[in-house]
Every structure is written in C-alpha cells, then in structure tokens.
Predict the 3D structure of the following.
Amino acid sequence: MRGQETKPLAKKSITFLLPSKARMEKARLFAKRAKGIWRDFRKNLGGMLGLIILMFFVVMAVLAPIIATHADPNNQVRWQYNPKFSPPSSKFLFGTDSLGKDVYSLTVFGSRASLIVGIMASLISIILGTVVGLVSGFFGKISDELLMRVTDFFLVIPWFPLMIVFATLLGKSFTNVIIVIGITSWPSTARIVRAQVLSVKEKGFVERARAIGSGSIHLIYRHILPNVVPLIFANTVLLVANSIFSESFLDFFGLGDITVVSWGTMLEEAYDAGAFSRAWWWIAAPGISIVALIMAFYMIGDALDEVLNPRLRRR
Amino acid sequence: MASGFRGYLLRRVIYVALTIFLILTFNYMLFRVMPGDVARIVIPKHASPETIAQLHTYYGLDKDPITQYVIYLKQTFKGELGKSISFRTGSMVGDIVAPYLTKTLFLVGTGTVISIFVGVILGRETAWRRGKIFDKVGSAFFITFYCMPTFLFAIVMITVVANYVPNWPISHETSDTYEDMDIVGKFLDRTQHLILPIFALVIETIATFSIITRSALIDVLTEDYMLTAVAKGVRPRNVLRKHAMPNALLPVVTVVAMNVGWILSGSIMIERIFNYQGLGWLTWQAVLSLDYPLLQGSFMLEAIAVVIANLIADIALFKLDPRVKL
C-alpha cells in the first residue's frame, strides 16, 4: 500500500523538477549549436555575401517609405505631371516609366511584395510538405501509399502550367498568388521529409522512447521533428528563392494583382510598353533586383546546406 | 536481361497510363470545383433564362457531374477537347491546339538537345579544370544564369538586341514578307527568328546541366579508381572520357529527365515574350481571355507531354545503368 502511494509521488516530484532543468539544458545546447552553425556559416564566402544582399533588401523593404524619393509611386495624383520615359537623373534616380512613375521608388516598394510572397508561400509549402512527409513516413502503410501517390502525381505534372491554371481559376489577387505558389511547391519537401523520417524512425532512441510508452504525437514532436528540421531548413531557403521567381513570373504573365507594386508587374508593364528599345532603366532596375534577391537566397541556402548537412556534400 | 527490361517497360507504361488517367480526372475536377463557371463568363449580363439554358446545353453543363465526366473522358479519347469560348469561338480546342503543339515540341526538343550537349561539355571542361580560372569564371556564370529567370533573360536579350541590332527580328516566328520569299529565304527567315528564343530558352538549362555534370564529375574524379587509371598510364583525357564520364553521366540523365517539365515551363515564358505561337503562347491567350476549355486542353497536353518525356528518360536511364532496379 505505502509503496504504491510513494511511487506516483516520487514521479510527480521528478516531473515537477525535470522540465526546468531539461529546458535550461536544452536552451544551452541550442545556443551552443546555433553558435557553431554561425561560426561555420561565417566562413562561407557565398553564404555571407548572400546574407548581406538579403539584409540590404530587407532594410529596403522595411524602410521603403523613407528610402523612396517619391512616396506612393503608384498613385496617379503623384505621377501624372512627371516627364515620361525620362532617363536616370538626380530627381528620378532610375528614370521614369511610360506614365511618368519613378522607377527607383517602384523598385524600392517592390521589394516588399517579393519578400512577403517569397516567405509566406514557402511557409505554406513547407508546412504542407512537412505534414505530408511526416504522416506518410511515420505512420506508413495505407497513409504512406496514398500520400506518396498524390505527391508523385504532383511531382510529375509540370508545376508551371499547374500554377498558371490555379492562378487563373482562383482569380487575380495578392493573396491568391501566395496560395498558388504555396500549394504547388510542397511535393519535393514532402519527399525529403519522408525519406528522413524513414531513416530516423529506425534509430535506437526512437525505439527506446516507444518502449517507454511514448505516444505518436510525442515521438514526432520530440524525436522525429528535431532531426528533420535541419534538413528542411536549407531546403526552405531555396524554396523562398523559387517562390520569388514564381511570383515575378505570375505577375509578368498577367496573373498577379496589378494594384500591388512588384518587380514582376513592373517588368510586364515595361515589356508591354516596349521599354526594351527606349527605356532600359525600366527593365534593369526590377530585373537586377530579382536576380540579386534570388541569388542571395540561393547562396544562403547552399551555404546552410553545407553547414547543416555536411555528410551529404563533398567527400 | 531482356525479360527484365520488358517487365520494367511494362510496369513503367502501366504507371504512365495510370498517371495520364489521373491527369484527365484531375483536369476535369479542377475546372469544375474551382470558382468560375464556363457559362458565366460567356453569358451576357442580362441574358434571358432561355439563352442561359441553351448555352448550358451547348457546353454540356446541364447534365449531372458523373455523366459529364464520362462524356469528357469519351471526347478526350476521341481527341475532342471541348469548344473554345474565346479563340475563334465555338471551334474545337483540339483543332486549335494541334499546330501550336508542333511548334512547342520543336522549340522544346531543339532546346533540350542543345542544352544537353552544351551543358555536359561545359560541365565536363569546368570539372576537369577545377580550381583554375576557367572553372571559377564558368561556375560564376552558371550560378548567375541558374538564378536568372528565363523570362528575365529573354527580356534582357531583347533589350540588348533592340538597341544594338535594330533590324534583328525580336517577335513572331516569321517576317511579314514571309509569303513572298523563296524556299531558301523562308528557311533563313525562320532560322533567324528562332535564334533568340532558343538561345534564351537554353541558357538556364545549360547552366543547370553544367552544374550537375560538374559536381557529378568532381565526385567521380576524386574516387580511387581514377588514381588507378592514372597509375596504369592511361592518358589524362582518356581517363576523363573513358573512366570518369560514363559514371558521371548517370546523375546527369536523372536531372535531365526531371528537367523536361522545366524546359517546357521555360518555353511558356519564351513564347509569351517572343510571340512565338506555340502552346505556351496559347496558354497565355487562354489566361487573358479566361477561356477555360482552351486552358484545360493546353494544360492537359502539357502534362501528358511531360509524363511521356519522363517515361522516355526513365527508359534511357535503365538502358544506361544496369544497376537501376525499380
């Protein structure tokens, strides 16, 4: 009787004490690991260059109203008296477009659309991909069969036309662009996550946790997920680059929201106005920005991949 | 071996047939589940109920979904892809699409062949000279073009050409005077019009293939058997050609297979920019005029084309690598 009574009490006291200590230890380990990653990352020239470019654009997006020389560049009241097709000058740093809008200010504000779409769409895609990959890898059997067939199907049909079809059917809006990119780019993530889950699932510590009686949710959350995250982290950064490209293309294809200032829309307007023969600045400004931002994410992703998953790279 | 290959082929073909069936079903559902009814776009705002009913019958929207689905499948297999609602209103999508499909297949086919050749050669040469200046400059170029969206590169090219070569054609696939030309003139005219689109199309895939070939080859070149070959006295270029390349090509073939869909996507961008009247241009027209049957038809063809291209690549991979067991 007594023994049975003391046991739960002891357990209770342990559980009462454990989390805070464990949490502190965990936090310490996490900080240590983050420091280590940062130390390795700093040595990577490409990664650092990418980070600097990215910071440049983030600052640009955040401080857009201050940096831009012409507030609210898309507002007709502001541009209607400006000279049209004016080459770069001290008043219009990157010149003006066919309507007289200031290209420099448009480019500055355009960084917001690219960054928001890039990050939000990748977030949707990463969540979808991770959930699908986790469920199919962890639970296996029918759910695996079913989910992987769906994933394969989405991998095999050309993602680009699919994006166009979705965007057309959903209608033109800023949110829809994010949704469309998000729901068409998850399959590769699902594949990566599933492969990693399958290999982690067989590890000793998962077996042990299961033997103590851990439930599925606990197993996934505490043991599987932490081992999957580093792998998808680098992948996410590359996805952002992809999403930014997709966004600019959808805008260029006339499927974006024309009321939102974005580099893709600028390029579309420039192309339609025939800027290639008389206003190179109108194409150069958004064009260079897109390439620079995509390249920044690409270089960061590449560097992260090298730092986080060294075994997969170079012998 | 032969029977193994036959079995593999059979399994792949069944799988592809199943995928195509799924594409058809998906294509059907997508355009009915999503907001936007075909009839709603065609019907004028204050149309009488009779007109609406008539249009519904015309587009086959009055039957229940399952009957519609069966009819859709039947018609698709007969090559009838529905009636276009914008592009020569009322004509069958299948008839509209056919000439555009050939043009796109030509563009994508030529583009793929060129990118494979140039990409593999560039990747090989940079890997062979790794660490040297040629490799460093080359890799920097690869990454730049890899990150540069195809449509952006096309616009940049048009900008440059329009400014420096004013008479070079930057749009459409023939000149206005095409009909009056003799056979040589026609051929030259077409070629001249094709150079820019193809160049713009291949640049990104060349970069992709070069990067893959380079890294695959560097992996192989650091293997021990490369040292063995050199120790045996095999001449350096022969080490590269006979010992390294065959092993490095396998991942390249896989990537090429995965990139067929990507080249098609590039073609969509290129066609819109150069007004090259292929499937991508048609897709764009369908998007502009919200012509769902046309969009549906071109999407289906694009999807099926990619699936079949993947099948061909899979078979090539099987032939190349005796180790592949699927």
